[in-house]
Write a structure and sequence with these properties.
Layout: H1 8-47, H2 53-75, H3 83-105, H4 107-110, H5 112-117, H6 125-151, H7 162-186, H8 191-203, H9 216-223, H10 226-240, H11 246-270, H12 274-277
Length: about 280
């Protein structure tokens, strides 16, 4: 009985398909290795190599925001429900975005030796900036836990939503990092203005008080600020023990996707000239 010979085209496709998966895995593994190397070098530069680097990692958040949280919790008699915890749920996610932007705007200068002398995927630099700040951010979470203990707020099962909230927080920081590196090149003299603008976004969101305690006239406008959704999502998970509302995740996620759509193509085009501007 005659059997139909296999088509050469089919064989080529099958072989190519089998080779594409290992190639993709190797590329992904190489990117992870580069990200790990970039992030580890940043962390060593920031925390040093001595035996006290863990203590510095642990105490840095206290130096940044812990003193203010202690003031709000124990000294100032502020109205509202658990004001120290409410403030921590805003300041800590904001620090991840803010510090990532500040890190990204100077990352080309810090990476000058390898930019001039090594070939690597420069598209990974913004992601590395966000991952570096996420290491510092992880110790900041201890402040939220401390505030929950001080105010007697017990966690609920809705705390399991936190990984998704954190993912949106990190994605917004990465998206902002792509823009920040370009602003660090294009607006080198205006870096302080960019940082001040981002800080202003904190006060144009319900950072100091929850959204429910703001005026109804401006509440809808505040929701347009992507930081508002993040702050409220953190409060829902840690303070109120409820599931984050859909808009609290969709608004910052949409903002992150818009930033990525605008600045990733620009970054891809500009990265070829990084060695000329550092």
């Amino acid at each position: 009985m005659n059997r139909e010979a296999p088509s050469p085209g089919r064989a080529t496709t099958a072989v190519g398909g089998e080779g594409a998966v290992p190639g993709l895995l190797r590329s992904l593994g190489g990117s992870i290795d580069v990200l790990r190397a970039l992030t580890e070098s940043d962390i060593r530069f920031r925390y040093g190599r001595g035996p006290f680097r863990f203590a510095r990692w642990l105490l840095d958040p206290v130096a940044l925001v812990g003193v203010y949280l202690i003031l709000v919790t124990f000294v100032l008699d502020l109205p509202g429900e658990a004001p120290g915890l409410s403030l921590a749920c805003a300041v800590i996610p904001f620090q991840l975005v803010m510090l990532t932007i500040a890190n990204a705007m100077t990352t080309l200068e810090l990476r000058r030796p390898i930019l001039l002398n090594m070939t690597f995927r420069r598209m990974l630099l913004p992601i590395s900036a966000a991952l570096t700040e996420s290491v510092a951010f992880s110790s900041s979470l201890l402040l939220i836990i401390a505030m929950m203990a001080i105010y007697g707020v017990a966690p609920t099962w809705n705390i399991l939503w936190f990984p998704l909230v954190l993912l949106v927080n990190l994605l917004l920081a990465i998206a902002a990092a792509y823009a920040a590196i370009l602003f660090g090149i294009w607006l080198r003299e205006l870096r302080a203005f960019v940082v001040s603008f981002v800080r202003a976004l904190f006060f144009l969101a319900p950072g100091l008080v929850p959204l429910a305690e703001t005026s109804e006239d401006v509440r809808d406008l505040l929701r347009l600020n992507p930081l508002t959704g993040l702050f409220e999502a953190y409060r829902d998970v840690f303070m109120y023990g409820t599931r984050p509302a859909s808009w609290e995740l969709l608004f910052p996620l949409t903002a992150a996707l818009i930033l990525l759509a605008i600045f990733v193509p620009l970054y891809r085009s500009e990265q070829r000239h990084f060695a000329k501007v550092v």
